[in-house]
Amino acid sequence: MTVQADELLELALATAREAGRMLVDDRPADGPDVVQTKSSPTDVVTQMDRAAEKLIIDRISTVRPGDAFLGEEGGTRAGSDGSPVRWVIDPIDGTVNYLYDLPDWAVSIAAEVDGVAVAGVVDMPRRGETYTAVRGGGAFLHTATGARQLRVNADVPLGQALVGTGFGYAPERRAHQAKVLTGVLPNVRDLRRGGSCCVDLCSLAAGRIDAYYERGVQAWDIAAGALIVQEAGGRVEGLSGAAPGPEITIAAGPGTFEALHDLLKPLDPARD
Ligand code: IPD
Ligand code: CA
Ligand code: CA
Ligand code: CA
Fold it and tell me: Which of 78, 137, 180, 226 is the most exposed place for a label (fewest CB within 10 A)?
């Protein structure tokens, strides 16, 4: 079955924007309700996370009924009819920002064909920004005034690098991440903790930060953002050439990646 990445991008784009608009328009004035907690009492899910994931899966499966889904809020289903496409969805990346009405949260949708991400969209309605990428076709930032192609900052020495990171919610993970942080901070320009993994990755693609690392991120956090960084000329990997994932995800321009990787490797070695 031949699938055109451009067509998948178009569907992802329309759907992410519809979900983004709904999340702005329907956000209760007194804030969303916490309907579930996950790894800790502060790892929350709101009714809006669930509503956005439902909207996204409904829209895409109406157009492409055979495709598979991996969604953070349980919207995981196998494909049918031999479709090679799987949609990887984070309906709100940055739920805590959304809960507090901070603007940096996003709808993230990636389309994989035979397990390879070929199209990705990260929509940030409160910033008025949408990031897109198609494998082999570059990464773009779309705003009300037009679109521009993205390039990572290529040659930033680690000591001059502005580095984004994030913290998983589980307490034992936090203690470990705090230790890693004390090893990173003296070796970089500064650190940023924005509260949304895919916003961090898009900021890297746009040259607003120089690098990013985090332990504990899942496929739905990084699927679209990693493609956007790669298409902007950056590297997104785990340790020693492993695929990025929960163990660790490191992203940076080519001139910064190795130094950050080598700094993190002894600080944050592979472990359970
Ligand atoms: C979280 C955000 C955050 C990161 C956490 C993620 P969520 O995703 O991406 O920046 O540090 O590890 O879990 O739960 O808001 O979708
Ligand atoms: Ca979550
Ligand atoms: Ca997320
Ligand atoms: Ca989420």
Answer: 78
